[in-house]
Amino acid sequence: MEWYYTVLIAILVIFVIGAVIAYTFRKRIFNWVMASIFGIYIATPLDLLPDFIPLAGWVDDLVAFILMAGFIYRGVKSIRNKKIEREVKS
């Protein structure tokens, strides 16, 4: 199997996982879509800055990872706040 088939399968799996998450949390879809986009960017071998450039090649991956973690944190925080609101109402 060629390497690009493996990458394509990985991208499709990540897309399906992202679609399931987006459907599950459709009211908070922006956070999950952005987290999925950054996750795909980190997983693919394509970079804005190639990794053979010392340090600069890793910076774009690091920034994408930090942004992805931030969007996931915001999504989880909104879920937790919604759950707390439901408990207070009942």
From TrEMBL:
<keyword id="KW-0812">Transmembrane</keyword>
<feature type="transmembrane region" description="Helical">
    <location>
        <begin position="55"/>
        <end position="76"/>
    </location>
</feature>
<protein>
    <recommendedName>
        <fullName>DUF1232 domain-containing protein</fullName>
    </recommendedName>
</protein>
<feature type="domain" description="DUF1232">
    <location>
        <begin position="32"/>
        <end position="66"/>
    </location>
</feature>
<feature type="transmembrane region" description="Helical">
    <location>
        <begin position="6"/>
        <end position="25"/>
    </location>
</feature>
<keyword id="KW-1133">Transmembrane helix</keyword>
<dbReference type="InterPro" id="IPR010652">
    <property type="entry name" value="DUF1232"/>
</dbReference>
<feature type="transmembrane region" description="Helical">
    <location>
        <begin position="32"/>
        <end position="49"/>
    </location>
</feature>
<dbReference type="GO" id="GO:0012505">
    <property type="term" value="C:endomembrane system"/>
</dbReference>
<keyword id="KW-0472">Membrane</keyword>
<dbReference type="Pfam" id="PF06803">
    <property type="entry name" value="DUF1232"/>
</dbReference>
